[in-house]
């Protein structure tokens, strides 16, 4: 540790802040989980796999362009605000303006070429104008990033875990019984994104207020965009790696297969949301420490969050993956065939967790190399997908994603450890100690009827893992994640170093 770095006390305070932010966002994850399953059930049962596959492809394209349009500012805004502590409001409005202009350009492109969004189908007027939702998505992302910089994680929970998913589910259910049913999923998505944008802009306005004295300067806007190009590339690479499988599958398989894969992907992405629960608070903490040259503290926080994420994800992966056939069958008999896809995608999320946590720091200390590795991962995924998808369909797409995620996880963790001069891996042997008995119980659960698998079985597997990891894995600062009161506690940032 450098001489400039403070002792453990301040790090403990930051660890507590990470715990509070992660705990708040985890509550949001539970709420989002409660809304995501009803939507998948409604879409699968009332609209069918074909309509769901078409919806999945269209929203994938729109969200990809929205990701381009944010120009990396979902994470880069924290760094810009840290550089301009006296002009944070101006920083927010600079980011809003430059991303809004980029979103308009992206929307215009998709409107001109609608086949990019709805390939091989008759385009309705509503579908042609569907890309106009992109500015709302971008405005929501930038607003929530600004709120997170001031540790207002509740804004993200309300917008992303309450407003967006519940409006989507309720609207899809309502429209399924009207003459608008052919476009029901698309309309429901539009309504949910507009509602989420409103729920994001209001807290940002309350926190930062009007832009008094702010004037847009083309030079400043250009520098902001240029500074975040590498960060934007990292965001797009990470996001693209999670959507590229849908794109390739859609080119080789009919919409029904894409719809089944989409349902499996949505279930499998739930563990990934556990990691993203820490993103809003992790980015400001890392940006602040790295700006001050406190690399050892940054590595400590990476290890701590990495362990929290791995522990939470592994338990969820076991609970969702082992009774996967029964779970997929809830959305319709045709979806039960996606059980293997679900298992492979859950493994991919588990492999990707450490890479994603490491990237939270790499985007500040090695943007170029981080993007290079991300692009290499996408190249590996594309090569494996083109080899496996034509022969194995959805299973091939999921296997390609899992393999590329594992390679990236190892590469990015080692790169970050070398740059920070400290270990960053969140793996501990206690994870294996807790997983083996839970897996054994899962094998017993699979011998029971499906209703038992989806009720008692799920909770038994998760409860066994949680009890063991709490007993043998969570020590000292680890338990801050569940502490209701942190007053008077002085834990070091971590108490069990990773090998």
Sum up the structure in keywords.
499 residues; 19 helices; 2 domains
Could you characterize what this model shows?
The protein is mainly alpha-helical and 499 residues long. The chain is 78% helix and 0% strand. It contains 19 helices and no strands. It is globular. The two termini are 18 Å apart.
In short:
The protein has 19 helices and no strands. With 499 residues, the protein is an all-alpha fold.
List the helices and strands and how they pair.
Elements: H1 8-47, H2 49-69, H3 73-83, H4 88-112, H5 125-129, H6 134-149, H7 154-175, H8 184-208, H9 218-227, H10 229-252, H11 255-276, H12 279-291, H13 295-321, H14 324-329, H15 339-365, H16 367-392, H17 394-420, H18 429-445, H19 450-472
Helix pairs in contact: 1-2, 1-7, 1-11, 1-12, 1-13, 2-4, 2-6, 2-10, 2-11, 3-4, 3-6, 3-12, 4-6, 4-9, 6-8, 6-12, 7-8, 10-15, 10-16, 10-17, 11-13, 11-15, 12-13, 12-15, 13-15, 13-18, 13-19, 15-16, 15-17, 16-17, 18-19
């Amino acid at each position: 540790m450098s001489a400039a770095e403070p002792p453990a006390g301040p790090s403990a305070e930051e660890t507590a802040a990470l715990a509070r932010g992660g705990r708040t966002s985890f509550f949001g994850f539970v709420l989002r989980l409660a809304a995501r399953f009803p939507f998948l059930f409604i879409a699968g049962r009332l609209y069918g796999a074909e309509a769901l596959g078409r919806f999945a492809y269209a929203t994938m394209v729109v969200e990809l362009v929205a990701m381009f349009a944010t120009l990396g500012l979902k994470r880069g805004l924290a760094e810009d605000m840290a550089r301009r502590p006296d002009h944070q409001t101006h920083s927010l409005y600079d980011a809003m303006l430059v991303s809004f202009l980029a979103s308009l350009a992206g929307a215009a492109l998709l409107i001109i070429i609608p086949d990019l969004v709805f390939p091989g189908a008759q385009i309705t007027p509503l579908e042609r104008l569907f890309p106009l939702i992109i500015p709302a998505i971008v405005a929501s992302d930038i607003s929530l990033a600004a709120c997170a910089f001031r540790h207002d994680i509740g804004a993200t929970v309300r917008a992303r875990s309450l407003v967006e998913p519940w409006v989507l589910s309720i609207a899809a259910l309502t429209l399924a019984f009207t003459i608008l049913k052919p476009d029901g999923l698309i309309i429901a998505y539009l309504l949910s994104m507009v509602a989420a944008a409103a729920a994001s802009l209001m807290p940002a306005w309350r926190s930062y207020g009007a832009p008094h004295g702010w004037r847009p300067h083309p030079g400043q806007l250009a520098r902001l965009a240029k500074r975040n190009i590498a960060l934007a590339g990292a965001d797009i690479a990470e996001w693209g790696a999670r959507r590229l499988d849908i794109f390739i599958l859609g080119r080789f398989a009919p919409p029904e297969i894409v719809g089944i894969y989409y349902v499996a992907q949505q279930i499998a992405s739930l563990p990934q949301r556990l990691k993203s629960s820490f993103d809003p608070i992790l980015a400001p903490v890392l940006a602040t420490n790295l700006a001050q040259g406190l690399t050892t503290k940054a590595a400590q926080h990476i290890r701590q969050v990495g362990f929290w994420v791995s522990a939470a994800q592994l338990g969820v992966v076991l609970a969702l993956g082992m009774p996967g056939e029964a779970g997929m069958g809830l959305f319709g008999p045709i979806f039960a065939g996606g059980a293997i896809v679900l298992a492979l995608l859950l493994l991919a999320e588990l492999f990707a967790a450490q890479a994603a946590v490491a990237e939270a720091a790499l985007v500040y200390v090695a943007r170029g190399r981080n993007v290079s590795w991300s692009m290499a991962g996408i190249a590996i995924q594309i090569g494996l997908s083109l080899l496996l998808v034509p022969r194995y369909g959805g299973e091939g797409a999921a296997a390609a994603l899992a393999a590329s995620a594992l390679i990236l996880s190892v590469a990015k963790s080692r790169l970050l450890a070398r740059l920070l001069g400290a270990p960053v891996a969140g793996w501990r042997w206690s994870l294996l100690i807790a997983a083996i008995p839970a897996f054994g119980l899962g094998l017993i659960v699979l011998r029971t009827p499906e209703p038992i698998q989806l009720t008692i079985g799920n909770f038994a597997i998760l409860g066994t893992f949680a009890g063991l990891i709490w007993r043998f894995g969570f020590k000292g600062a680890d338990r801050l994640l569940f502490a209701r009161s942190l007053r008077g506690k002085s834990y070091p940032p971590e108490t069990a170093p990773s090998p």
